[in-house]
Specification:
The structure is a single chain. The chain is α/β, with parallel strands linked by helices and about 290 residues long. Helix content is about 45%, strand content about 15%. The chain has 12 helices and 8 strands. The protein has an 8-stranded mixed β-sheet, with helices on both faces. Strand 2, helix 1 and strand 3 form a beta-alpha-beta unit. Helix 1 crosses helix 12, helix 2 packs across helix 3 and helix 4 packs across helix 5. The longest helix has 23 residues. It starts with a strand and ends with a helix.
């Protein structure tokens, strides 16, 4: 389990989405690391045992721009089931923080990662300084019929899902990145990431089933951390409906909302600097309020 440790400042744990690979959030990692010490990783459903931190002796501050690898022990199981999967992902977040010698951090979950962030914040309230949910699916979301087919036979229908994704995202990307040359650069970077960090359709299917089988609504009532719900514009998010993400405003006490303009589901990577500015303003406001 490679752990990415970038930047300096207040700690922030960034949890990736359904694809499970941190590399797809690289623009957000780069932007956030200008203001935060960002910890991120690729999702792994196994039970993780971590050795002593390699940064023991750095006073728990970590080393900027570091990448270090942790090997799981014999209890490792690569495929989480849908009954305890979120618990095991939340355990992974806690293990990463402990390994980096961080007691409390802002927990930021993007898309499916937001469900993990909700579970972690409910189970570990003293370790969650603030909670950021970006384009997070509603609790106990019901998949569309064709997406149910993708989940049942990912190796057959998964390629169709991947093939249709660029068409669904095209309006959002055009809005977020008006310049045609910049859009081409964005597309080339996305293709390079796809080849360098290949997706597992079977694991994506497991996570998709988890979205429909695990209800985090009871977790929401237990969250005590200040919470920011980030969505794109209603007419641009064709992956997770904005009204579904907005349910967390009702479920989590004192949660507040913000819209990342000119974006839909991909705002954290199509407009990473704007996304990082929203997160920074929110966390700074919480620190000032506490002071």
């Amino acid at each position: 389990m490679p752990i990415i440790d970038r930047g300096s400042g207040p700690p922030l744990v960034l949890i990736p989405g359904l694809q499970g690979r941190w590399e797809y959030l690289r623009p957000a990692v780069d932007a956030l690391s200008a203001s935060f010490r960002v910890l991120t990783f690729s999702l792994d459903g196994g039970t993780v045992r971590l050795p002593p931190s390699p940064f023991h002796g750095f006073g728990g501050t970590g080393k900027p721009d570091a990448t270090y690898k942790v090997e799981p022990d014999a209890t490792y199981r690569p495929m989480p089931d849908t009954t305890d999967g979120l618990d095991r992902y939340a355990e992974q977040v806690a293990a990463v923080m402990t390994h980096a010698r961080i007691e409390r951090a802002t927990i930021c979950g993007v898309s499916f990662g937001g469900l993990i962030a909700v579970r972690f914040a409910a189970q570990h309230p003293t370790r969650c300084h603030a909670l950021v949910l970006a384009s997070t699916p509603r609790p106990a979301l019901r998949l569309r019929r064709r997406h149910q087919l993708y989940v049942r036979a990912p190796w057959i229908f998964g390629p169709l899902f991947l093939a249709e994704t660029p068409w669904r995202l095209r309006p959002e990307i055009r809005s977020a990145i008006p310049d045609a040359r910049a859009r081409r650069q964005f597309s080339r970077r996305a293709l390079r990431t796809l080849f360098s960090a290949p997706l597992s359709l079977s694991q994506m299917a497991v996570r998709a089933r988890m979205i429909t089988s695990v209800d985090v609504e009871p977790d929401c009532a237990r969250i005590t951390a200040p919470t920011l719900v980030v969505t794109g514009e209603r007419n641009l998010d064709h992956i997770v409906p904005v009204e579904g993400s907005s349910e967390y405003l009702r479920l989590i006490p004192n949660a507040r909302a913000v819209v990342l303009e000119r974006t839909g589901h991909l705002g954290s990577i199509t407009r990473p600097d704007a996304f990082a500015a929203l997160v920074r303003a929110f966390t700074e406001g919480q620190r000032h309020a506490a002071a």
